[in-house]
Design brief:
- By secondary structure, the chain is an alpha+beta fold.
- It folds into 4 domains: about 190 residues, no CATH class; about 190 residues, Alpha-Beta Complex (2-enoyl-CoA Hydratase, Chain A, domain 1), CATH 3.90.226; about 60 residues, no CATH class; about 60 residues, no CATH class.
- Helices cover about 30% and strands about 20% of the residues.
- The protein has 21 helices and 30 strands.
- The strands form 9 sheets. The chain has a 7-stranded mixed beta sheet, with helices on both faces.
- It is globular.
- The relative contact order is 0.11.
- This is Tail specific protease domain-containing protein.
- Keywords: Signal.
């Protein structure tokens, strides 16, 4: 009886979700009364675990994660994860949706694959969608200056609701932070990244955590009530100090969408916002050519602000891409802007700097296009395989097989959707072993590039500087990893951990294909309960034309060539100037010096063409072990229509340009023979 009374009193005092009628700032304890009242059932939990076990059979890294291959510099860089074993450990008896959800998120994070996702789908409007309206925040944003010190900028309001910012934070906005919780102030960001970021590289974790630690949706990062209630003690270099706590912002569902709110926060973090219709109209009226105080001679910006390029008085071309996924309404502007950027770069001979600020990837076709613009001789046809499973077979039959090609014939794997049986490329799989772990995948296929406009005046690799913050993700990493593999540009790290190791700064992460399960299978079990799932379904490999690579690029670390002390990219022209100054130094440096750890980047020179004497091949000078260009000539790239076979040091015909005939003779060769015979006949 007493227990029932206590339960009644607790329920009476707790805050119900229905009591939030407007946007509101609340305490952690009060907000969690609503959050913890969102319930689940043992049946629902078991259904979800069973569903995950079924669909994650198609997760391409499911086997590899049990015993991942490690890089030379670490024996535990990639964490070992047995997904089925961890799913079996999840408590399905809990009735707290947040508790159950947090356990699954912990498993997802442990894979360090940002493509693998399990989240609440707010559009399905199920009871759990209430969680998407809760945001944790601190009363400041974190900034890092070029002096490698941390500064805290007061967060004065969220959605026009004033925040009670402690006086110490206001007064010390321009004073560097000395310690947080008595430690190096960056440690709190590093630890947050290790625990809550699903990215592999420490620098990428840091880049993500720097903003996520001070603001984020609990549906993305389900922090515990205990964590959020832990005080944070800050001491500045002037020895002033303050102790602060997290608060919760509750978004009123009808008021504003989750996407719009997060977009507003991104602006505060220095990420370029989308233009309003009025701004688009105004800009079109004044034209895209303009002169500014910062010396911008000409610039082009897509209507969604995802693509930006300019030419400055500094004689540097700038190309900024924040995403490869234009919204439907902006596709035409996105593509037109890239075309305008190509024309701009063709109008001069100046170096090109490319900046990828927190680029989350997107459409594969656009990433291929951008790499080809920068490095037209690169092979951008990704070599891919999928894990053999019932759901993978379903995906291949449903249409995925029609976009994959036989790399040795350039013939499409499946010519029709929903064939009764897939071809031998799938039914006779390839088996790769990682110790005692067996990885059974489809035979290597390519996803081919659809030709688009390229530069008429391409630059040499030593005239292109590509800046990456390591967060460069998915489609973005296809570009950076591709450029690193082929030696197509100088790769430079910015942002990341100011005191992290440069040798651990990866150019990008997750070069894989991902599906949204709710789009591929609308009747899956997760939609019934209000969730959505993302799965990496095709791994990519290095361009070995024997097609026998055994380690996917997901588990191959590609590191930067150089590092600069520039932290978050900002929309201001002054920031572009900072990059330009660094670009000029790097371009000048690479006239005589180079990265001895990157033998693929070659200083191209026509003088080497004769010395290497390789048919259809062009040469350059290799980087010496002393960090200076040697006098050794090596193959650098091949003529259009030919691929650079690096392993065998030769140029081979691209079968998509020279497809084999029935007798094995390239069709173009046959056509040339017929033309010659025709000419001879005419002469006779």
């Amino acid at each position: 009886m007493i227990n029932l009374l206590l339960l009644f009193i607790t329920f009476s005092l707790s805050k119900q979700c229905s009591e939030y009628t407007t946007n509101e700032i609340d305490t952690v304890d009060s907000a969690f009364e609503c959050i913890e009242s969102i319930e689940t059932t043992e049946k629902e939990n078991n259904d979800i675990i069973t569903g995950l076990k079924h669909y994650l059979e198609a997760y391409v890294f499911k086997d590899i994660l049990k015993n991942p291959p490690q890089p030379s510099f670490s024996n535990n860089y990639y964490e070992k994860v047995d997904i089925d074993e961890q799913l079996n450990k999840i408590n399905t008896k809990t009735t707290s949706m947040y508790d159950f959800y947090s356990q699954i998120q912990s498993l997802i994070i442990s894979t360090r694959d940002g493509h693998l996702g399990f989240s609440v789908d707010e559009d399905l409007n199920k009871p759990n969608s209430e969680l998407t309206n809760f945001f944790y925040f601190l009363p400041f944003t974190i900034n890092i200056d070029n002096d490698k010190k941390m500064y805290l900028t007061p967060r004065n309001e969220i959605e026009d609701i004033p925040i009670d910012v402690p006086e110490g934070i206001v007064n010390n906005e321009n004073v560097a932070v000395k310690t947080i919780n008595g430690e190096d102030p960056f440690n709190i960001i590093r630890e947050f990244g290790k625990k809550y970021s699903a990215l592999k590289c420490p620098h990428a974790q840091f880049t993500e955590a720097r903003s996520a630690i001070s603001f984020g949706p609990l549906s993305d990062t389900p922090l515990s009530k205990e964590y959020l209630n832990t005080p944070i003690s800050i001491t500045w270099e002037n020895e002033e100090s303050v102790t602060i706590n997290y608060s919760i912002f509750k978004l009123s569902t009808p008021n504003k969408s989750l996407k719009e709110l997060l977009q507003g926060e991104e602006v505060k973090q220095g990420i370029k916002p989308k233009l309003t219709p009025e701004e688009i109209k105004s800009r079109k009226e004044i034209g895209k050519r303009m002169k500014t105080k910062q010396g911008i001679i000409e610039r082009y910006i897509s209507d969604d602000n995802n693509v930006y390029c300019s030419l400055s008085d500094n004689k540097i071309n700038t190309f900024v891409i924040t995403a490869f996924d234009p919204e439907d309404a902006y596709v035409e502007s996105y593509e037109d802007t890239i075309t305008e950027c190509i024309d701009l770069f063709d109008s001069n001979n100046y170096p090109i700097q490319v900046i990828f600020p927190k680029n989350g990837g997107g459409d594969y076709d656009y990433s291929q296009w951008v790499q080809k613009i920068l490095a037209p001789y690169d092979d951008v046809n990704e070599i891919e395989s999928g894990r053999i499973s019932d759901f993978t077979e379903y995906l291949m039959k449903a249409g995925m097989g029609t976009i994959l090609y036989d790399p040795e014939t350039c013939e499409v794997r499946e010519k029709e959707i929903n064939p009764q049986t897939l071809g031998e490329w799938y039914t006779k799989p390839k088996i790769i072993k990682y110790g005692d772990v067996e990885h059974k995948v489809s035979q290597p296929s390519t996803e081919n590039w659809e030709a688009k406009k390229l530069m008429k005046n391409p630059r040499k690799p030593t005239e292109i500087v590509v800046y990456t913050d390591s967060f460069c993700y998915s489609g973005c990493s296809l570009v950076t990893k591709g450029l690193k593999e082929w030696g197509g540009a100088i790769l430079v790290g910015f942002d990341g951990d100011p005191n992290g190791k440069d040798e651990e700064f990866e150019v990008g992460l997750s070069p894989t294909s991902v599906i949204d399960l709710n789009e591929m299978d609308e009747d899956n079990i997760f939609t019934q309960y209000g969730y959505k799932v993302g799965i990496s379904v095709r791994e990519t490999f290095r361009h070995n034309y024997n097609y026998d690579e055994s380690i996917p690029r997901e588990f191959l670390t590609d590191m930067i060539d150089e590092r600069v002390n520039i932290y978050p990219y900002d929309i201001l022209d002054e920031t572009i100037e900072e990059f330009e100054e660094e670009t000029k130094k790097i371009i000048e440096k690479y006239q005589t010096k180079c990265n001895p750890k990157n033998k693929r980047l070659v200083k191209r020179d026509e003088k080497c063409d004769k010395e290497i004497n390789i048919e259809h091949g062009h040469g350059g000078y290799e980087c010496g072990d002393n960090g200076e260009w040697s006098t050794k000539c090596v193959l650098s790239y091949c003529d259009e229509g030919y691929k650079f076979d690096y392993n065998n040091n030769k140029c081979i015909e691209d079968v998509c340009v020279y497809p084999p005939t029935d007798d094995g003779t390239p069709s173009m060769t046959v056509n040339l023979v017929m033309i010659i015979i025709g000419i001879i006949t005419l002469i006779l």
